[in-house]
Amino acid sequence: MVSHSKLNQEVQPRIGENIALGLTYSLAAEAAGITYKTFNEYMNRGKTEKSGKYFEFCIFIQKCNADAAKKCLESLRIVLFNLELIPNVNIGML
To answer: Which of 7, 27, 68, 85 sits a CA distance of 20 to 30 A from 76?
Structure first.
């Protein structure tokens, strides 16, 4: 029996959006309709290949991680900046 990959132009962006929101790989994969095991198989294959859809998937996920980290730090910066504008809030106590 031939196994068909679920990695396509619909699943990949959904996983990426979920990761960018801060979901774990497991939750991001499940929400996109694949198992965590399948996600890991895609990632492991992408790490060993030099080109192709699994390689591109691995690069895409790495970018989504960087984007998520950037969004998180930007949000934290905004929150801390806004706290400084509120009287009687000592950020050092947070």
So the answer is: 27
